[in-house]
Amino acid sequence: MTALAVENVCKNFGGVAALAGVSFDVNEGERRVLLGPNGAGKTTLFHTISGNLMPSAGRVALFGLDITRLRPDLRARHGLARTFQITNLFPRLTVLDSVLLALGGIDGQRLQLFQPPSRQRTRYGEAARLLDRWGLAGTAERIVRTLSYGEQRQLEIALALAGKPRLLLLDEPTAGLSPAETRRVVALVRELPRDMTILMIEHDMDVAFELADRIAVMHQGRLIAEGDEAAIRANQQVTDIYLGAE
Q1: 22 DSSP β-pair partners
Q2: Which of 131, 143, 182, 208 is the most exposed place for a label (fewest CB within 10 A)?
């Protein structure tokens, strides 16, 4: 089954075409990585898929449902979640409260932070399991702004996973991380269940080749290549544009 269908999507900002007729499908359970130099249109594409931007033309479908004009919250209810290139967290909340807020947003129940844990045992248990899985159990009572950058990136992914999405968009999840933090995030992403489809923007070629089933390469708002690792490595246009060969 096709998890995500992007059909001839265009996005114009005045006279600038940030996306110029991008089309591709991602199969259910697939790990697809988007590569491309800065300004290629990757994050703009993510914004049109998640609903942060409306496309100037084209269509986006999620598991067969046309979501082109849906609000971001409605797309989330249909199983889409995302992270951002720059962390998008609540800096004054504790880590635990952040996860509880994410879980409350998914089930539609109002979060009351001053209730005793016994009143929300199920949600607290889910939050604890999520933090433990992402190596954040020891940070539960810390204020988010006191976390290291790597911990904040891990927390953002954990929050995106709180609703058990069917399609997860990861926007450069390893950007700014140390080699050790990168290895941890790669290992955790690799362990995510195969019934979850992942579309990921990644700047690190080693990470991309390690995680991707297929790779798509963008340049100047267009999709210029698709394929597995061997096909992308052998593509001379990709080498010239992205890898910097002369």
Answers
A1: 9
A2: 143
How do residues 140-179 score in pLDDT, each as one tens digit?
Answer: 999 999 998 888 988 999 999 988 899 999 999 998 888 9
Give Cα 55 distance to the centre of its chain: 19
Q: Mean pLDDT, the chain, as a whole number?
A: 88
| Residues 114-136 pLDDT 10s | 555 545 677 888 888 889 988 88
Q: What is the pTM of this model?
A: 0.87
- Sequence-separated contacts (24+) of 11-14 with Cβ below 8 Å: 11/41, 11/44, 11/48, 11/53, 11/55, 11/56, 11/221, 12/56
Domain boundaries, the chain: 1-79+165-246, 88-164
Helices (H), the chain: 42-50, 72-77, 95-107, 121-133, 149-161, 179-190, 205-211, 229-234, 236-241
Q: Distance between alpha carbon 220 and the CA centroid of its chain, in Å? A: 21
The encoded tokens of residue 121 equal 């045992």
Cα–Cα distance, 243 to 218 (Å, whole number): 13
Distance CA 43, CA 18 (A): 10
> Which fold, 1-79+165-246?
Rossmann fold (3.40.50)
